[in-house]
Amino acid sequence: MSTSFDRYMQDKFPGMQLEPPLFYNADVGIRFEIGDPDPLVSDQQYFEQVRHRSIQLFRSAHNNDDELYIVLILHLRPQVRPFKIKVFRNAVKNKKALKKLSCNSIEWADDEEDGWSAYRYVLECRTSDLKTANLFSSDYRIYIFNATRDTIFHFYDSRGLDIVSNATGPLQALYHTYNDWILDYDRERVDHMFHRIHPEYED
Predict the structure, then answer these.
(1) Mean pLDDT, to the nearest integer, of 162-177?
(2) N or C: which end of the chain has fewer CB within 10 A?
(3) Cα angle 145, 150, 151; round to 5
(4) Cα dihedral angle (29, 55, 139, 161), rounded to 10 degrees?
(5) What are the DUF3885 domain coordinates in residue numbering (predicted)?
(6) Buried residues in 164-187 as b, exposed as e (16+ CB within 10 A)
């Protein structure tokens, strides 16, 4: 069944696979380090930084009136039916927005081989409808599409998060403002995308 989200994906992100690592599946993106890798940092300090950086990046990447698709991919064993996901109720302030939550089965190559089934939950809402921090405390695989800016925000775990797009424009401000937070492992690749050329990434 074709949905507004399917049409949006086909128009803005054709062929993109919604699976980690999202940064490597996108034409343009930034991989941010949000957890302090120092092993001497206390758990409290570590998670305080994770919370601060993830919320700060989300707020900088989204305006209150931006139109979003919150997408959750769920894989279930055979005979298990899809169920209500608490993360949506916990993360949405405007409960009326939950009426736009949909769930559809989707094709997923690995699942078909293993006998599992894949389902995709999609919630259409605005940034102002959300309790942002609650989205990042979930263990589910969640992708936040900003249909106003054409970006995808993916918190993959407490170590880091990806923000990707189909062009550099929507990410320029994030690249310059939070440059110190870019994951060093991928910094050269990110710099190349934003025209700080590194010879090893030349065609």
Answers:
(1) 96
(2) C
(3) 55
(4) 20
(5) 6-186
(6) bbbeeebbeebbeebeebbbeebb
What is the sign, positive or negative, of the torsion defined by CA atoms of 155, 9, 84, 109? negative
pLDDT number for residue 136 = 84
Q: Which two tokens stand for residue 148?
A: 């106003």
pTM for this prediction: 0.90
Q: Is 78 exposed, middle or buried (0-12, 13-18, 19+ CB in 10 A)?
A: exposed
What Rg value do the Cα atoms of the chain yield, rounded?
17
Count of residues making up the chain: 203
Domain ranges for the chain, please list them. 28-41+151-203, 63-148
* Buried/exposed 107-118: b ≥16 CB within 10 Å, e otherwise: ebeebeeeeebb
